Amino acid sequence: ATPTAVMVATGVGASNGVLIKGGDALERAQKVQYVIFDKTGTLTQGKAKVTTVKVFSEMDRGEFLTLVASAEASSEHPLAKAIVEYARHFHFFDENSLTEDAQYSSKGSPISAWLLDVAEFSAVPGRGIQCFIDGKQVLVGNRKLLTESGVSISAHVEQFVVDLEESARTGILAAYDGNVIGVLGVADPLKREAAVVVEGLQKMGVRPVMVTGDNWRTAQAVGIRDVRAEVMPAGKAEVVRSFQKDGSIVAMVGDGINDSPALAAADVGMAIGAGTDIAIEAADYVLMRNNLEDVITAIDLSRKTFSRIR
Ligand code: ADP
Ligand code: MG
């Protein structure tokens, strides 16, 4: 392609909200064979909501939510934010107003009014969080977090979590003083266009793949056949490299801090415009409309620019 063609294509991209950082990135996109999507915030809306609260102890729901939200209050994780938000509304409204479709208003009781004191908070990457409340250990996260700390999960609790996961929800377990006290189900719906884009890529001869830190069952329920689940935060770049091993050209689409090493490792990194600055910096493309259809726009634009003139 001539420099003029590249300039024109870059302009066409920009007017569609597809920002391209240079001619090399524009050229590589035409050769993409795999598009690896991050799940949370990229394929999904990134608006996690608690849909299920099940207490497996003597505690009532209010006590359970207070304990779990207190433990999660220091976490930046979207799952933690969903839990704290839910608990805030539980304490402000009555429990029956918290249905799955409830529109959470920005109001709510001031958190300081009911949060418990937390000691020794720590985030466990890819697993959850741990801390101490009233001198007792509190764990909130996935199975691995609990079992690695020696908390056993009964068949009854396990079945409850499996049921959540099979309906594409993330099951979050909470343990207090060595015992499971309850489970929360969190849903994060897919973006409206996700399925169409996945199908569209396949029709173009490009293979869609999903990578996530979430568990296998929830990941599989999303509907993309090629899935890498339970990937540790540092592991996403490794997944990109594994696809590149045979010389394949790989695009990565992501939004999070976790995704930036993978965006940098990919032949074509595409950041969601609403994503974190670090992801945007690491990427070759920024999709300003936050619409996954622009992954296809970007590949099309490159194909049109380079195939004709070569
Ligand atoms: P992702 O953002 O793709 O879900 P993460 O590595 O951030 O990947 O998290 C992986 C899993 O670890 C989550 O699905 C969840 O089960 C658990 N987890 C991580 N952080 C938290 C947290 N603050 N509270 C509860 N669970 C968590
Ligand atoms: Mg994400």
TrEMBL record:
Subcellular location: Membrane
Family named by the database record: Belongs to the cation transport ATPase (P-type) (TC 3.A.3) family. Type IB subfamily.
The protein's name in its UniProt record: Copper-transporting ATPase RAN1
Naturally occurring in which organism (per UniProt): Gossypium australe
